[in-house]
Amino acid sequence: PFQLPPGFYPANYPEGELPIQRMFAYSDEALRALFDRMSRQPGYANTVFIFTADHGSGADNEKYKKVPYNFAVPLVFYSPGGLIPPGTDERPAGHIDLMPTLLGMLGYDKPYFAFGQDLFADTLPARTINYMGGLNTIADSLLYLFNEKEFGEIYDYRTDPLQHHNLAPAFPADNADMHWTKAFIQQYYRHVKNRRYVVPEPN
Q1: Nearest residue to 171 (alpha-carbon basis) of 139, 144, 149, 147
Q2: Local confidence band at 10 (pLDDT 50, 70, 90 cut-offs)
Q3: pLDDT in tens, 108-131
Q4: How does pLDDT run across 159-193, given as a tens digit for each residue?
Q5: pLDDT given at position 11
Q6: For residues 113 and 187, is the Cβ–Cβ distance under 8 A?
Q7: Nearest to 139 by CA among 175, 114, 105
Q8: Which spans in 39-168 are helix H?
Q9: Three-state DSSP class for 110?
């Protein structure tokens, strides 16, 4: 929430530069209360909790007003029973990776349809895609801005988050990330057009 819900908690949380920043303390306290209650429930140790958000909420830092950082949201997997080893991962990931990751954790071994990948198991290069004036691919440290005709802008988003140095003019005309982006777009539109989202049964 952007505004503190009345009657839930004291209204003495610290102010920030943006209205939503005051709510971080509220969210922390709400999560503490939730987990205090959840920890006493049967099955708590066998539960996987996922924390994420559906979009960003503004920023007081110029870096977080640019792609891909304006899409940056938490993506946290928590397993009280130790199913997931502790640690952090700086590879790009997206919400389309949630289902394959959970199926991998469940040991699901049947074919299924997904655009994402298992974040804990796949050896494929880590990539994700989003839409902001075009379909944009985030791969390793590179951001490819694709206007559905060409990759007009390419940036090293880790070292150049404000996008001052466009690498596209001196970049090779084709590489694996570009092929992946075009293949993703083709497959996406093909499946949407045909309304085909399941793996065909074997004959």
Answers
A1: 144
A2: low
A3: 999 998 999 999 886 778 899 988
A4: 999 999 999 999 888 899 999 999 999 998 898 88
A5: 61
A6: no
A7: 175
A8: 98-105
A9: coil
Determine the Cα–Cα distance for residues 72 and 140; give it in Å rounded to an integer: 15
Beta carbons within 10 angstroms of residue 68's beta carbon: 21
- 100-129 burial, b at 16+ Cβ within 10 Å, e below that, comes to bbbbbbeeeeeeeeeebbbbbeeeeebbbb
pTM of the model: 0.84
- Structure token digits, residue 89: 């991962």
Q: Which alpha helices (H) appear in 39-146, and where do they start and end?
A: 98-105
Helix segments in the chain, DSSP class H: 23-38, 98-105, 176-194
Copy the structure tokens of residue 152. Answer: 């007009």
Tokens of residue 88, six digits: 């952090």
